[in-house]
Queue: 4 jobs
Job 1
Amino acid sequence: MALERTLSIIKPDAVAKNAIGEIYARFEKAGLRIVAAKMKHLSRREAEGFYAVHRERPFFKPLVEFMISGPVMIQVLEGEGAIMKNRDLMGATDPKKAAPGTIRADFAQSIDANAVHGSDGADTAKAEIAYFFAETELCPRG
Ligand code: RTP
Ligand code: MG
């Protein structure tokens, strides 16, 4: 498996629940390394830009409202197969369908407030990392 990087966001609901540490522990126990991180209260423009691929979807407006409802914790995770590994740790988008033991099963309350974001492929990972971090802010640990 290749060494990859992926963008992860701990969304406002999980930050409000004080669950950053528990979620970070899951990343680290799965062998993912946090190579960059920042806490941020996204502006409307930042959230709309980040989720631009969904702009025509009916859930776009509530998604943006939710993402700007409080601070988020944004990190770059690095590791073997990091993109899929993080998606597996997160579980299904709808927490009702998320497998037991996944982050969304344990911390999310609804499909809208679903605790975490993770890039869904190599191209989106690259673009999403660049959306929030300059190359010089990454501390690769291989
Ligand atoms: P994310 O991008 O946040 O990691 O989540 P995902 O890949 O599992 O889901 P995606 O299809 O990319 O959708 C982005 C976010 O939009 C909200 N959503 N709501 N009401 C709905 O049918 C619906 N579908 C998606 C979710 O909060 C999802 O995380
Ligand atoms: Mg997605």
Job 2
Amino acid sequence: MAHEMIATEVQGAVALIRLNRPQALNALCDQLMRELGEQLLAYDADPAIGAIVLTGNEKAFAAGADIKEMQGRTYPDVLEDDFIAKWETITRIRKPVIAAVAGFALGGGCELAMMCDIILAADTAKFGQPEINLGVIPGAGGTQRLTRQVGKSKAMEMILSARFMDAAEAERANLVSRVVPAADLLDEAMKLAARIAALSPVAVAIAKLSVNRSYEVTLAEGVRFERSVFMPLFGTADQREGMAAFAEKRKPRFARR
Ligand code: CO8
């Protein structure tokens, strides 16, 4: 698959996707989002891949949707074209996706990171939803996901005033799982992805499904859902291997299909 706006590589069972439009701070134009969606779906369907890392460059994870591309659009244009639909592909990926964020993650860039399963931040990361400066609001889930992550007051402040959050604040506010020195970001993300990719692919997929369910249903409903997906895991070879390995004091060997 030839792509111009993303660069990819595979290391073992980990796929790395790098947003690659540095001259525009990785602004997320239609072509980039199409390429990203296609590549994510391809890795999701590839049994040799166990986890995906999504990153940008030192200066920007992504500085938002492409403002120059959106500038001339009218309401009927955006209604007909439904360009936001392309942004939802990442939420349909069943394998874990880790965002490794350095520099700017703004607007759609922050929303894209929040659609990933884990955000690892470099100490240079800056998160923000500055769409209000442009006379619009976040349109790829920002008002919803940021509010769930950091709470109403902080989300309101960021969305209403366009204030950026640095990496330390993002960690305190639970927007990111951890902050690492910028020089170590990719290594840490790849190590984390490799660790996940070595585990039971079925258990990992079901764990992701179950955690995501917590965003959609009540606690009681979520706990029932968890139970209903926990029990079938006892019908898998991975459960037998994982528990036998523990009893035999050895490392489990989980097979990729
Ligand atoms: N869109 C298009 N081009 C951009 C964008 C962007 N979001 N961000 C930066 N660029 C371009 C600049 O125009 C510039 O290009 P050129 O050299 O041709 O003039 C180049 O990238 C470098 O940028 P700067 O010179 O501005 O770099 P600075 O270091 O001075 O500033 C900033 C960095 C602060 C990040 C600044 O570039 C900025 O404010 N960018 C815009 C941030 C923003 O407002 N993001 C929100 C965009 S709106 C959005 O994301 C809506 C999401 C809705 C999703 C719905 C589905 C589509």
Job 3
Amino acid sequence: VSETGCLSIVVLGASGDLAKKKTFPALFNLYRQGSVKAEDVSEFLQLMKYTSGSYDTEEGFRLLDKQISEHEEAKSSADGSCRRLFYLALPPSVYPVVCKMIKLCCMNKSDLGGWTRIVVEKPFGKDLESAEKLSSQIGELFGEHQIYRIDHYLGKEMVQNLLVLRFANRLFVPLWNRDNIDNVQIVFREDFGIEGRGGYFDEYGIIRDIVQNHLLQVLCLVAMEKPVSLDSEHIRDEKVKVLQSVEPIKDEEVVLGQYHGYRDDSKVPDHSNTPTFASIILRIHNERWEGVPFILKAGKALSSKKADIRVQFKDVPGDIFNCEKQGRNEFVMRLQPSEAMYMKLAVKQPGLEMSTVQSELDLSYKQRYHGVTIPDAYERLLLDTIHGDQQHFVRRDELKAAWDIFTPLLHRIDIGELKPISYQQGSRGPAEADELLLRAGYIRTHGY
Ligand code: BG6
């Protein structure tokens, strides 16, 4: 292992989808890059052991503990400390019982130091009440410093870039506020539907699946004040303040959609009211952002697969070039695919005439960082859990504040008071969402 002592990574739910698609590939890539050292592939595979057992009985966990202890005895180096990482690639309903079993049977017992940590995936609850209940159940067993709540958007290259861009560039510092920024969009689009995840998805819907976590985390990083330092508590303190400043969501600033054909999934009820698309305006009541709409938009089965952050600046006062016709300045960060950031600017149209045209200062990662592999979000986050860095993980109070924002809206959707509008698969979503965007003040420029 990369540090002294022995590291055991236990993936619970090893035969499930998440483990197969994300956890194991991330572990393997870390191994390949030497972050988790081993001589060759066969050695890596030999390091893996499979144990089966049920989640709610001591027997299986005692066996697991025995196996970990044997591994530790065999591998421990001189300092003897033992590190145990439990990755719960499981449905949240079993988190409490599994945590209880880990606490009862599988904690690190070495006198020479080390630790036990648990990693959990969203959804952390379905609303404020259930999330708080889950947090308390786990919180009774483990300290906050032992719990790593993954939101994989926090492991994405461009999301991690936000802090650097905002706080390491003099250029942005004076501009990043209500005096200069007109509106902000944070958009997630997928060009496929729920693809066999009907059971899970219909229970949660797009707001719980994407908006309340991934997009809201991005919003925090766009909107937060400069933290005292890069210490994980300092960063999360600032994120919580942003979340606590979000005003209650207004009905007229929400557009919900459901793609045509969604209910054909065998696990989706015929009268499902679950949104597969949502566009929601959040307003932050503080000195920096009062009056600036943050439009969070997410949808399945749309025309493209893309996630980006689009910051649109206000018009130039006293414009002498008639720039308004060309469009406003925009700063865009494309999170995926093909990471990029670009700035839309008015420039002189090359040639004899004095006319303006909108052009772009373009930093496309593929071209600029040719040959550099951008690590998958899960690789970074797994490594962070091993190193004990919680900067990119969601703290309990952050989670509570996030649920505070969306719970009233979600309850109204759950009881059918708000209904999604049907939209065609492969479209931009309901036309009403584009109207909402224009009402929010966004001025469309060519190409968007
Ligand atoms: C997951 C959601 O959290 O994020 C999925 O449950 C979604 O519905 C996925 O497809 C998107 O992740 P990414 O990294 O592909 O944008």
Job 4
Amino acid sequence: GVLASALLLGACGSDDNAGGDSGDKIEWRFGHLADENHIWHQTAEKFAELVEENSDGQIEITLYPNNSLGGETDTINAIQSGTADMVISGETLQNWAPNAALMAVPYAFRDLDHVKSVVEGEIGDQIQSEIQDQAGLTALYYHTRAPRNLTSNQPIESPDDLSGFSMRVPNVPLFLDAWQAAGASPQVMDFNEVFTGLQQGVINGQENPVDLIQSGGLAEVQDYVNRTEHVYSWIYILVGNEQYNELSDELKEVVQNAAEEAQALGDELYESEIDNIEQELMDSGMEFVDVDQDAFREAMMPAIEASLDDEQLELYNQILDV
Ligand code: 2Q2
């Protein structure tokens, strides 16, 4: 039974049991970049609670919001070396699994229905298994994401307004290429450094969905949300392969069942919360600006095609046809 296998695991006290040093309990450290009020954190709390409850306390998951366990890339490296166990990540994984870039190709996805049909179809399965093989992370559930918009302190209605505009992008080479081609001066920073970078004028802007604009408190340091809507995407909740494979079949099932419930809760929270956030950002003083999206798409397209290799381009074309 579950207790016996947990004790057995405890008895051999596998020393690569990430984070957990007491034999009979598995302790996972789960880091992510959103704040405690964010949909991702609320869903992750439910996931952790279900896993702990249904494993009779054999697996304890501690959450570290606001990048308090380190930035996204550092957390991925920590999971691979066994000092962390779970992370929320997506296109940044292209640094290990190149085809993860396809999760967030600018202007590839028409809307969230298109995203859902890809992530739940064979392209999504392929990306998920390449992340498992090449990044060493197993996806447990995912969140669909509101579109990414460019924030700034001057209205930006077309790429012509981007000259001299320094902005932060996440550690996603494809984003660096796309925004460079659009005429901006992008640089990679961890999300938890963005607020200070904007406050000190090191950068003039950044791009993110409204929920992370809110989570990062960016209304205090940015006046405009320019509706570029340049990326519709999804993001995975992932655990290290080793950490997951260490579990007995019974505990794997507990984790999978909790993931299914978390998936449903995350979808529910998205539906109920995302539309309010735009109004909340306006109430905090941000002005939403309509932009010439075709001009941004045309400006980015050459960089997208240059940045993707043949296999990625093949997948990109398959996505366009879904
Ligand atoms: O801007 C960010 O850091 C976040 O929106 C995400 O983490 C980003 O989309 C990617 O790094 C996801 O892998």
